[in-house]
Design brief:
The chain is mainly α and about 250 residues long. It has one domain (about 1-235). About 50% of the residues lie in helices and about 5% in strands. The strands form 2 sheets. Strands 4-2-5 form a 3-stranded parallel sheet, with helices on one face. Strands 1-3 form a two-stranded antiparallel sheet.
């Protein structure tokens, strides 16, 4: 999620969508049946709740913070969810702007306008299962850290650096900042990123010879030795950047 004034689709991306046979996101966000069925898979296995994973004082701090952020979901529901998902919800609700939007939303709207069918590289069920591979205790400690660090100058500075790197399309800086921010989760990079990157590239190899496709995934999947870009090149594909300027409202694109 990013403030709406800081993001838009460039002419080159709009053109690519318009000329494509299909648009692939990480998951098919248009599949309402799958989205409804996934709710149960967002919960931790067994009867585990957040209070089982943190101290009483940490639990109360998270609960109070959650209520102060005016999340769209009640805390009673979120405390049974996998903590990384809860943290993600808090991060979105705490954004300072009122017009936060995800790039996927813009791409889906453009695809719908052009009559292009949207599909997913993986299922939502698989995506939710990934969080079962990371100990809930570790996820809970990340949530505690997020709440404790919220509002601190260093934390705000890192977030601004991340947004700036995203806007400027600085992939290496994005990778460095992400690793710095989630150092304790770096050991799970294979589960969160690299294994999925390999799966996606394998799927792309079956899709691209048959159709013209736009494939849009999270920026964190692009850089690095095991990122999608290098994996495609290793597979023998020619991968080149296309001018993709994000122009602020009121400015003219050259």
């Amino acid at each position: 999620m990013i403030c709406g004034d800081d993001i838009q689709l460039s002419d080159s991306l709009r053109s690519a969508i318009r000329k494509s046979d299909n648009v692939y996101l990480e998951v098919d966000l248009n599949n309402l049946f799958e989205m409804i069925s996934i709710v149960s898979k967002m919960k931790m296995n067994g009867d585990t709740t957040l209070s089982d994973l943190v101290t009483p004082s940490e639990y109360e701090n998270i609960k109070a913070f959650f209520k102060s952020q005016k999340s769209i979901l009640p805390f009673s529901m979120m405390e049974t969810y996998k903590p990384m998902l809860t943290a993600s919800t808090l991060m979105q609700s705490s954004m300072e702007c009122d017009n936060a939007v995800a790039m996927e939303q813009l791409i889906m709207a453009q695809a719908k306008k052009d009559g292009i069918k949207i599909k997913g590289l993986e299922t939502m069920a698989y995506q939710m299962s990934i969080f079962d591979s990371i100990p809930y205790k570790l996820q809970a400690q990340q949530l505690v850290q997020y709440v404790n660090d919220y509002g601190k100058n260093d934390d705000n500075k890192e977030f601004e650096e991340l947004i700036t790197a995203y806007r400027n399309q600085e992939l290496q800086k994005l990778e460095d900042l992400t690793k710095k921010g989630d150092a304790s989760l770096d050991q799970f990079a294979d589960v969160l990123l690299y294994n999925r990157n390999r799966n996606w590239v394998n799927k792309m190899e079956t899709l691209m010879p048959e159709k013209s496709v736009v494939i849009a995934v999270g920026a964190g999947h692009l850089p690095g030795e095991f990122g999608v870009i290098k994996l495609l090149r290793k597979a023998g594909y020619k991968v080149e950047p296309v001018k993709n300027e994000m122009i602020k409202k009121g400015e003219k694109q050259l």
